[in-house]
Amino acid sequence: MIVESAGFNDRTWLDGDSHPHTEALRVTERLRRPDFGHLELERTLVDPKALAQPWVIPMKFEFDADTEMLEYVCAVEGDKLMAGQNGGAKLALTPLSETKFFLEGAHFEFVKDDHGVVTHLNIQIVEGDFKAVRRKSARPTGQNNH
Q1: How many CB atoms lie under 10 A from the CB of residue 118?
Q2: Per-residue pLDDT tens digits for 55-99
Q3: Given Cys at both, which of 30, 37, 105, 130 links 42, Cβ 3.0 to 4.6 Å?
Q4: How far apart (Å, rounded) are the C-alpha atoms in residues 39 and 1?
Q5: E-strand spans in the chain?
Q6: Contacts of 13 (CB under 8 A, 6+ apart)
Q7: Residue 136 Cα distances to 103, 114, 119, angstroms
């Protein structure tokens, strides 16, 4: 399968090293499934205003049966906001403002209601904008999760 994408804005970066792109960015993704448990993806980024030549990124994925959905968790540790996935290694988010952060090519914005309570998270990445609604859960008193 081949997916061609255009119409990007210039509000994000291409990667965690802050490589910029412009609205001229075109992304072609070639997906191939050689067998049941494997997926190959080759992503080609073309942006004549920001890149000297096409940037080709090959990726390989393996199906992991009987696993749960991935969950991303943000929590304050010391004086840093950390993000982690399914209990794995946590990475520090770089603050841009009180509610906006950057991590590895993505911009995160925590959106609050009229009472100052975070209701959801907007995520801006090259592929588009995503909204993650805060899951209702009981938090121990005094825990400062975002």
Answers
A1: 14
A2: 998 988 877 766 665 666 778 888 888 887 766 778 888 888 888
A3: 30
A4: 11
A5: 2-5, 26-35, 38-46, 55-62, 72-77, 80-85, 90-92, 94-95, 100-103, 106-112, 118-125, 128-133
A6: 19, 20, 21, 105, 126
A7: 24, 18, 10
CA distance 79 to 87: 20
What pTM does this model have? 0.50
Whether 138 is covered by a domain: the verdict is: no
Determine, yes or no, domain membership for 67: no
Residues near 45 by beta carbon (within 8 Å), at least 6 away in sequence: 14, 21, 25, 26, 27, 51, 54, 55, 56, 57
Domain assignment present for residue 141? The answer is: no
Average pLDDT value over all residues in the chain:
81
- Total domains present in the chain: 2
Question: Contact 31/41 with Cβ under 8 angstroms?
Answer: yes
Report the amino acid identity of residue 30: R
Asked if 106 and 56 sit in the same domain, the reply is: no
- Same domain, yes or no, for 17 and 47? yes
Distance CA 24, CA 21 (A): 8
Does residue 140 belong to any structural domain of this protein?
no
